[in-house]
Every structure is written in structure tokens, then in C-alpha cells.
Request: fold
Amino acid sequence: MKILAKGSDPSELKFTKRMNKTPNIVIIGGGTGSYVLASGLSDSKVHISMLMTMVDDGGSNRVIRDEFGLLPTSGIRQAILALSKNKTVLRKLFTYRYHQGGAGLDGMTFGNLFMAAMADIMGSQKKGIEETCRLLQVKGDIFPISYDNVRLVAEYIDGTEAFGEHNIDVPKCPGLRIKNLKTKPSAKINPEAEKAIREADLIIIGPGDFYTNTIANLVVDGVVTALKKSKGEILFIANLMDSCSETPQYCLSDFFDDLKKYMPLELVKYVLVNSNNNYPKSALEAYAAESTYPIKDNLQVKDINPDVKIIREDLISDKVPEKQKGDSLDRSMIRHDSEKLRKEILKIVGLAPRL
Reply:
């Protein structure tokens, strides 16, 4: 059994010895999970590259895609905020969400409009992202996983399909399990994202909506190939809650049953699992009303590969985030704690001792 308890781990010492430079950490994901993770690591002595899914089409992203003809900006915006060192009013403006006005403004963030304008000024969305990162003093790199304009398509076990990220996240038949996920049309990996993966020392997958934030990246052509060719080790961070829309009544082992359809589980070196089940009662009640519950931890080494290391620690935040004015979308109330994640990740890369 390769389950880590308290105590030093020889593989982490080997990791440290081969590091003669700042560790390159790549985060593959999207949404709040990646934001929380990157926020905790942003002041650490590591280089972070965030590779973000570009398939969102709900809320303000629908306006960005349909009215401006751009790829969704919310994931990139959150990544920028996570790694930004800018503490001026510009940062506050970037997070401001309109809660009045029509014509698609209600619920829109200023940051999304800012990035749409910057793409127009700079002549491309790629250059717009780069200039926005410069203005917000981003420490690290932020790359879309792909620049191809695609939508997600989910096939369910009953043979029906849902088209678009928002329709998957808010399905007509909640509780129905997803059989397969793909993009339409096919998407090709952004060369900058591919380079980041291949040069990474540690690649972190998750946490986040399992299909629309995690698998959505893996189905992009070239991503899994890059993971196979990378010299970096892969850490999978397990979600805290299931989802009636994407992972209904999932145990932790179910995630890996699904994950192996998209990437070889032999690539996974570490799995980080929350061990603290003392969730806020009010949050649990709100989730239960939507048929969403804490994920049962039944994970064993045999569910992944013989050499995987399963690390179980208290990872939850004791803070319940407040809902912003004008935000019409449901947001997670139970989240990982960014500082707790940071400590465990620094142990893995050998920058902190495992006590």
C-alpha cells in the first residue's frame, strides 16, 4: 500500500535533489478550483503556468462568445486575478460585477469586458491576454489550453446528448451519468500550453467541475500526448463534493473509473484527498437541496496504479464565500483552502518538510 501518512517520503527527497532551479508547476483546469489553488501558490518560490479550459458558454461568457465572437474570458480572468501582484484600483475594477442594466450587462464582470476590448485593441485574443497579464502584473504564465472555438458535447448513459458547457452543468435530467465527453469540432492544443506541460516538474489536475473543467482539457488533441512525454509528475486533487449534473452520487473511485477513459492512470503519481468531513452544516443543507453531497472516500491504490501515493489531509476552507451582486450562476460554497493546498504541494516538490 502506497498511502502516505505523517513522515518523510523518499520520492520527495529525490524530487528535491533533482531540482537545481525553481520548480515549474503547471495547473490544468478552470474555474474556482484552479483560482483557489493558484492563489495559494502565487507567493511561493515556484513558477506557475495555468492552462485554462476555454469552453464556458454560460452567464457572461455567452455574451462574450455570441456578441463579441471571442473565446470565453472568465477562466482566464480568474487565473489572472490568482497570479496578479497588482493591488491598485485596477484589480478592484477587474473583479467588479455589474448588477444593473440590460443589453447583457447584468451579471457581467468589468474584467471580461476589459479583456474583450483589449483583444480588439491588440488585434488578437492571444495578444490581449498577454497585455492584460502585463498590466495586472501577473507572476507566472497563463495560457488557454486551445485557441480553437469549440463547444463541449456530453453523451449520457441513456444515449441522449447535451451540447454546450452550460447545458452540461445545468442539465435537463440531473442525476444522469455522463458516458463520454468530446469537443465539437475537435480542438488542438495551444503550442504554448504543450511546451509548459512538457517542461513541467509537477502537473496538477483539478480540483474543479470534473467534466467541464478537468476532462474538458484532456479531450483537446495533444494534451494527453504532452502528458505522456512530460518529465513532470502528475498530482490529481480530488473534489470535495459530487455534482448532480456531472458526477451524481460518485464515490472517489468513480472519478478514476471515468478518468481512465481519457488518460492512462499510470501517469498519476500523487492524489491529494481531503480527510476532514466537518463541513459547515448550512452549506451541506443548501447542497442537499440540490442533490449534491460530500464525496465518499473509498479510494485505494489498486483503483489507480501500484506506485501512486494517496495523501489524505485536512484541505477544506472554514469560510463560506459570499455571493456577489448580479451573479446569477450557482457557485460552490464548500471549497478547498488555498493555504492548506499550498503546504501539501510544497511538500511534494520538496520545498517544505512532511512532518
Q: What stands out?
A: The mean pLDDT is 90.
